[in-house]
Write a structure and sequence with these properties.
225 residues, alpha/beta, Alpha-Beta Plaits, 2 domains, 6-stranded mixed beta sheet, 4-stranded antiparallel beta sheet
């Protein structure tokens, strides 16, 4: 039986056309998209990819997808990525896979950002999933304290008892806001804290959501019902 994740991913891949530069997201749902793109490349689809993490880069190389970086282009035609939560306005929480910084850079350079999700990721209100905030290691305790004063109930993400390091060598502080009423304002406010590199609120970047709900595919475009 095909999972919702796979169904959404394969629906998104149909938007990829010959000659495109494609942003390759990170996460369990996007893995299905990269796998399907690899099959299409082996069948003759001519694309070039820009991965959002070292994990995705490794998978794309194994699938035979040609890769480039931003030394060769300033723009991406289409990016396929996932989300930990997404609401009806297509605002998102991302970063469960600790790739939020590269994911946001890639999203900001994309002419189209397709977000693929299974049905449980679609929420009425953002905030149940802890909001990842990427910070530099120096002074992280100060940043941690400031995140707490914003009501974020911060928690330093660990791996094998040590602070998890992102691909850029930074730390992740997961913040439990419970309910995020104004995602745009909070995104901006968090990024104004010295030492915060980026946060996992993605607002105004998703142009199309493709959600699998059982056997049904639901497509919602930005600004459309």
């Amino acid at each position: 039986m095909i999972s919702e994740k796979q169904r959404a991913a394969e629906a998104a891949v149909e938007y990829v056309k010959d000659g495109m530069i494609v942003g390759l997201g990170t996460g369990s749902t996007t893995e299905f998209a990269v796998k399907k793109l690899g099959e299409k490349v082996r069948d003759g689809l001519a694309i070039r990819g820009i991965p959002t993490s070292d994990i995705t880069k490794k998978q794309a190389e194994e699938e035979g997808i040609p890769l480039i970086d931003f030394s060769e282009t300033m723009y991406i035609d289409l990016t396929i990525d996932g989300a930990d939560e997404i609401d009806a306005d297509l605002n998102m929480i991302k970063g469960g896979g600790a790739a939020l910084l590269r994911e946001k850079i890639v999203a900001s350079a994309s002419r189209e950002e397709i977000i693929i999700v299974s049905s449980e990721k679609f929420v009425v209100q953002l905030g149940s999933f802890p909001l990842p905030v990427e910070v530099i290691p120096f002074g992280w305790q100060v940043i941690f304290n400031q995140l707490g004063t914003l009501g974020g109930s911060p928690d330093l993400r660990l791996k094998q008892g040590q602070p998890l390091r992102t691909d850029q060598g930074n730390y992740i502080i997961d913040c439990r806001f419970s309910q995020i009423i104004d995602a745009v304002q909070l995104e901006q406010r968090l990024n104004m804290i010295p030492g915060v590199v980026e946060n996992g609120l993605f607002t105004g970047l998703c142009s199309r959501m493709i959600m699998a709900d059982g056997d049904k595919i639901v497509v919602k475009e930005h600004g459309k019902g």
